[in-house]
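Issue 218. Parser rejects a valid record. Input:
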Amino acid sequence: MQALVWEGPRQMHLREVSDPQPAADEVLIRTAFSGICGSELGGYLGHNSLRKPPLIMGHEFSGEIVALGEQATAVRPELAVGQRVTVNPIIANPLSRASLKGRPNLSRDRRIIGIHRPGSYADYVTAPAANVYVLPEHLSLELAALTEPMGCALRAARLAGITATDRVLITGLGPIGLLILQVAKATGARTIFASDLDPDRRAIGAHFGVRVIDPRAENVVEVIQAETGGEGVDVAIDAVGADATRRECIAAVAWGGKVIFTGLHAEESPIQANLVIRSEITIQGSFAYTPIDFEDALTWLADGRLEIEPWLLKAPLAQGGAMFERLLDRPGRVAKILLHG
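Output the parser choked on:
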């Protein structure tokens, strides 16, 4: 089969590799669409310690089952060849302490498709049957490939505890930030501020009627202070992961407020510890999603509650390297790039 193989920093090439074979409790899927994630951009640059070349990345995907391992239907009786599916790429021991607490995404032994094993930037990919979800008939394969990032957005918003009376800041209007924005709107958040350096991404954010801030033209914290009577926002969610945006969220949140870090750009960041202590600010990380978040994300998509199709760009797998470079340069008015065979 053909696969897009990451071979080192900014080195991604289409190669001919052996077809994967499903284990007894796995399925073989013909990939339809596979999204490019922000964490994979870091990996592509060589900045992600989890990803080691050579590697077939890709963990946001949809496709069709073409083969079943001999025990796959014992795990998921509803699975059959020919079904359209998506996959939760986080593989965890169901008996781990974290899994038993309902948070398998925090299992110490977790393995992720596209990081610890070959991913979906290929004609075919294998996955545990337990992680495979059959798609509703009316849901397109393109939108189904967004289940994974939608799950990330739902998780971050839930951990933030956004309510209808809250004022919210979202830093970064990439795919995750844009999805969080839509979840926040659905909760009826009182006021939503959103910031991004890229004018095209700000334009997408403005489409949803939120207060969009250009950090190069305005001081984000000062704008929020001025427009909240000096109080600040109740919740700040950083979907970038840069030192500046993490500090910005802490400075912008109200005393007693909550900050969610979900962006994974910088490995470490200096923060205003004394401000956090004196203001009783809660800081919490948000990593990926639980199975319930993933299932709810699929339902959200099936119900047509997400607006993103005008900003989807589909490109052949052979152009994958060029698409990574585009996202690193000027992606244009694009919320998500989906690679396909």
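Fixed in the parser; the record now loads. Residues 152-285 form a domain with the Rossmann fold fold (CATH 3.40.50.720).
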